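Hey, I'm writing a tutorial for new members on how sequence and structure tokens pair up, and I'd like a real worked example in the thread rather than a made-up one. If someone can provide the structure for the chain below, I'll link this post from the tutorial.
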Amino acid sequence: MNIEKDKVVTIDYSLRDAAGKLIDSSDGGEPLVYLHGNSNIIPGLEKELEGKQSGDKVNCVISASDGYGERDESLVFKVNKKEFGPDAEVLPGMQFEARGEGGSQIVTVVDVLGEEVTIDANHPLAGETLHFDVKVVDVREASEEELHHGHVHAGGCGGCDCGDDCGCDDECGDECGCEEGCADGCCN
């Protein structure tokens, strides 16, 4: 079966920067499983995998514009230290989850001067050229539930980490972690 929109794809991968430094890898861990064509991985890698099948290997270089985007210096700004909480220890290099109109994102503390904290809301890999070595492990049909939610589900209750953006309709309570719930009572 070929990789195309709405197929569930399992890959083993390693990701290196332009200098060859390993950034991330599935080696020693679980392979990456995603729903193709639903913005679950970076666009450049998705394009490179289109049409491939189980057993295929792909070595590719993804530009920043097809990866995590170019750096945007307007996303580096200063906030008051009290924004992190009354007793929070805030040090350069720390990362925090910030919620805004566009959803949540990770921000990195760049500098702390007294009560002024400089943060960077760019993705840590923004502006980077990415080098991938990928092996396609499996390609399968997506379930109706996966297609409805736009992402892959693991087996059983409790596997959903979709927060409030999975598009579920009914309440499923604490069983699955979905704030909006799921059509069958179990988002997994």
